[in-house]
Amino acid sequence: MIKKLEVNLLTKVSFADYGHLISNEKIKPTMEEDTFTFWDNMAEMNIEGKTGFGILEVNKRIKDFTNLERHRKTEEIFFALDEDVVVLVGKATPNQEVPDIETVKAFQLEKGKGIFLSIGTWHWIPFPLAEKARLLVVFQQGTVEHDLEIIDLKELRGVTFSIKI
Fold first, then answer.
1. Could you tell me which of 100, 86, 113, 105 has the C-alpha nearest to residue 24?
2. Which domains are assigned to the chain?
3. Interatomic CA distance for residues 91 and 41, integer angstroms
4. Which of 12, 56, 129, 132 is deepest in the core (most CB within 10 A)?
5. Which of 164, 165, 158 is nearest to 2 (CA)?
6. What would the pLDDT profile of 87-119 be if each residue is shown by its tens digit?
7. Whole-model pTM above 0.85?
8. What is the greatest pairwise CA distance in the chain?
9. pLDDT classification of 43: cutoffs 50, 70, 90
10. Which of 118, 110, 107, 43 is nearest to 74 (CA)?
């Protein structure tokens, strides 16, 4: 079965089931001077231990995917640095080994904005709208080695997702 995913507008309300939008739009700055403007407290992470920061570079590829991943112990941030991307998410299913396929959605994340994923939120590698895009990734240090669960939904449920762009 191929499940086509429309690319949704990313807002605080539309993304609430998956985490939070990180954006300074329509928010009063914490500090503002002639030489800078600063917005504080855009997101708060509850991380046990050290925080890891990484850069994810994604390349344009086919619009179909079958894998999703989750982290059971940490929240995660994706912040689009230089290009818009499509983020792929599914609601957390803490008592299940697979996501609810009907909750898997695609959202356009504009460069200069980020998303905060709640613990257990299913997701996959963002899809760049340019040839290449870079994202800042923040989560608990050691997540890739100790808290990365990847499943293949084509193998488990016969499902392939296709992004409608």
1. 113
2. 2-164 (2.60.120.480)
3. 25
4. 129
5. 158
6. 999 999 998 899 999 999 999 999 999 999 999
7. yes
8. 57
9. confident
10. 118
Q: Which residues pair with 78 in a beta bridge?
A: 115, 137
16 — pLDDT class (breaks 50, 70, 90): very high
- Amino acid making up residue 102: E
SS in 3 state form for the chain? CEEEEEEEECCCCCCCCCEEEECCCCCCCCEECCCCEECCCCCCCCCCCCEEEEEEEEECCCCEECEEEECCCCCEEEEECCCCEEEEEECCCCCCCCCCHHHCEEEEECCCCEEEECCCCEEEEEEECCCEEEEEEEEECCHHHHCCEEEEHHHHHCCEEEEEC
Query: Rounded to an integer, what distance in angstroms lies between the CA atom of residue 136 and that of residue 46?
Result: 18
Q: Is the dihedral of CA 42, 46, 52, 54 positive or negative?
A: negative
Q: Name the strands in the sheet holding 160-164, side by side, starting at the edge strand that comes first in the sequence.
A: 64-65, 160-164, 2-9, 105-109, 85-90, 122-128, 67-70, 149-152
